[in-house]
């Protein structure tokens, strides 16, 4: 793609006194993209978001929005709007006054503004709520008011700072879907900050995983999940089994590794990611890439044997911790509970099928 | 009640607290110059006499002018100080705030003496109600700041950021968002400063020169037994005014809570 990025970070550094909060962030966010900044608390994701909004000055580097350097541009002059974690609904104003707040400096007539407010409320499913007092709304409704208020100005970029973290699980999942739909509808670039990897995977076109002020990996959700570029990213996103491995040979694009319990494995170079320096090499499996074999079922590529150590039943899924023969620690395997498939008991001896194509070698 | 002694104690406490105040209207309407039982008869004459008293009217208007201006001044200064201390970090903030709050615990007589010295010897100004206003701003400022600090501290900072994000300037944000939300605090700070100033004696006594204020006038009249019933009538008016003022303040406080949906954490009444 040769289009100009909507947001570009160039070697962005941020210091709070001696604390180095952002350590040379360089990344680009494409126009119309749903982009997520994902990481544990304190990784700098919110700080980075606030540098886009103009609430944080950067110590060095540059932040560009739609090709324009934002240095010296105050927050109220930037083409961005934000949905705050606390929603920041003005409690002394009505819903309509909240939503229309950004239009105060607009030259349009009162009637036109009122129409815009009504449209914005309708867009977020709050038609007819305009006259209500903002403080009397539920959490989900506040969220919608905050969205309408931010979108009414038709910003180039909508910034969302952990907008769903205060909501109940059910409403949160509902809002995730609504946000995706809304983003497609308005076509505005969304930048979401979240610590919830599931939320990021569900909603984003691309995700930047951050640790300690740096972007560890920037990729689409599937790549991030299937080919994490480091053990740390793999650990942060979903569950991954790590088995100690010894690299025994390299030939062209193929690497041979020896894993206790699985034997010698041949993996392509594209399946190799980073392990922390000094650490032993390991192979990683997602729980769903392994399968328990029931009686009479044929193995896939490879097969191993083991004993079920622990069973965790989730309704739609069951997690089994299986201790494979010749392995010290059990591996976690997830199985979908399809109709007619029994949940196995602890202590059952079982066969496990797996495929070398699904693994990642960390070295 | 399961434990009568505590109930009796509580009643005795309330009686001790309010019975003296109840004596004020009792003798204000009593047709006799001597403050003693038995009561003689009912009269409103003392109130009429009070209204005719020019010095008293002068003292009252002085006191009201001093209280209104000094509490307005203290409240405005307190808004800046409270805002600065809750929002910004600056050098020596702790010591600066400590020094501003110090008059709260400093004996008023020290304030009175040192201010008198400054006015007469350093600034060389004539004593007037202006000097009393200055003194009262200094002594009521810490109370106003204490009230406003709570109001500013409970204000979510992202509200201001949201307003700026939506295109408002810093000043516009302060006017449209911050000010309305801390308004109950501003009213409380004003009322506290007002009452502190209105009944303040020592600083007014030192700094007023030959101008009477209500407390200094009342004190000067206590020497004359014949004018005591008039003072009683004045006291009765002050009690009535206090009740009205507190009720109005409470009404606005509750309305403010209702409008912003905040939890009631207790007020005056």
Automatic annotation (TrEMBL), chain A:
Alphabetically sorted, this entry's keywords are:
ATP-binding, Cell membrane, Membrane, Nucleotide-binding, Translocase, Transport
Query: What EC identifiers does the entry list?
Result: 7.6.2.11
Pfam families assigned: ABC_tran, TOBE_2
- ABC transporter domain location is 7-237
Carries keyword Membrane? Answer: yes
Biological processes, Gene Ontology terms: putrescine transport
Q: Could you tell me which SMART domains the record lists for this protein?
A: AAA
Lineage, top-rank taxon, reads Bacteria
CC annotations in GO: ATP-binding cassette (ABC) transporter complex
Q: What class of enzyme is it?
A: translocase
Q: Name one GO molecular function term.
A: ATP binding
InterPro entries recorded for this chain?
AAA+_ATPase, ABC_SmlMolc_Importer, ABC_transporter-like_ATP-bd, ABC_transporter-like_CS, Mo/tungstate-bd_C_term_dom, P-loop_NTPase, PotA-like, Transp-assoc_OB_typ2
The protein's annotated catalytic reaction(s) are: ATP + H2O + polyamine-[polyamine-binding protein]Side 1 = ADP + phosphate + polyamineSide 2 + [polyamine-binding protein]Side 1
Oligomer status and interactors: The complex is composed of two ATP-binding proteins (PotA), two transmembrane proteins (PotB and PotC) and a solute-binding protein (PotD).
| Functional summary from the UniProt entry | Part of the ABC transporter complex PotABCD involved in spermidine/putrescine import. Responsible for energy coupling to the transport system.
Family, according to the entry, reads as follows: Belongs to the ABC transporter superfamily. Spermidine/putrescine importer (TC 3.A.1.11.1) family.
Name used for this protein in its record: Spermidine/putrescine import ATP-binding protein PotA
> What organism does this protein naturally occur in?
Thioclava atlantica
Q: Which gene encodes it?
A: potA
Automatic annotation (TrEMBL), chain B:
How the protein sits in the membrane?
Answer: Multi-pass membrane protein
PROSITE patterns in the record: ABC_TM1
Q: What is its main location?
A: membrane
Q: Which UniProt keywords apply?
A: Cell membrane, Membrane, Transmembrane, Transmembrane helix, Transport
Q: Which InterPro entries match?
A: Bact_Polyamine_Transport, MetI-like, MetI-like_sf
Identify the residues that the record assigns to the ABC transmembrane type-1 domain, covering every copy. Answer: 60-249
The yes or no answer to whether the keyword Transmembrane helix is present is yes
Q: In the UniProt record, does the keyword Transmembrane occur?
A: yes
Gene Ontology cellular component list: plasma membrane
Compartments, record wording: Cell membrane
Q: Which family does it belong to?
A: Belongs to the binding-protein-dependent transport system permease family. CysTW subfamily.
Q: What is this protein called?
A: Binding-protein-dependent transport systems inner membrane component
Q: Which organism is it from?
A: Thioclava atlantica
Q: What is the lineage of its organism?
A: Bacteria, Pseudomonadati, Pseudomonadota, Alphaproteobacteria, Rhodobacterales
